[in-house]
Amino acid sequence: MQIQRSSERRKVFYYLLVENLENNQPLGRLGDISEQGVMLLSSHALPLETRFEVAVHLPQTSSFLEKTLELTVETRWQKQDVNPDILCIGCQLIEAGKEKEDVLEKLIEYYGFSEGYKEFRQSQ
Fold first, then answer.
1. What CA–CA distance (Å, rounded) separates 82 from 98?
2. Residue 31 — pLDDT band, cuts 50, 70, 90?
3. Residues 6 or more apart whose Cβ sits within 8 Å of residue 84
4. Is beta strand 25-33 parallel, antiparallel or unpaired with respect to 10-12?
5. For 114, what's the count of Cα atoms within 13 Å in the CB-facing half-sphere?
């Protein structure tokens, strides 16, 4: 099932660690991000249509006072990356709340870039 997005996914400069809060085990690394979802890069498959309470480990910079961003996500799709050792796993954000949305927006603003930026850099 293909789901239409209303916001642009932005690749991230840093592949931030994402852990399952239930067992503190890594689920993968943040591959891209939007206001509605994230894509994880993982070495293992995750069950689809499953909710996870996750912690995104934030960069330790003055931009973020928090060490982690805790979110509820639901796995929606997965596909093989160009690298056969990596799976791309699309997750929808389920619950964020205003405070978390502010941190999420800051993360997108400071550490993400759009495909347009990528195309501009390649043309240089």
1. 36
2. confident
3. none
4. antiparallel
5. 6
Q: Measuring CA to CA, which residue among 38, 112, 21 is closest to residue 78?
A: 38
Between β-strands 51-57 and 112-113, what pairing exists: parallel, antiparallel or unpaired? Answer: unpaired
Q: Which two tokens stand for residue 46?
A: 């995750």
Cβ proximity of 27 and 46 under 8 Å: yes
Q: Report the alpha-carbon distance of residue 106 to residue 16 in Å, rounded.
A: 14
Q: Length of the chain, please? A: 124
Domains located in the chain, CATH noted: 11-123 (2.40.10.220)
Tokens 């085990």 correspond to what residue? 25
Structure tokens that stand for 15 in this block: 């592949």
Q: Does 40 score more than 90 pLDDT?
A: yes
CA angle, residues 93, 97, 101, in degrees to nearest 5: 70
Q: Which residues contact 2 (CB under 8 A, 6 or more apart)?
A: none
Percent of the chain with pLDDT over 90: 40
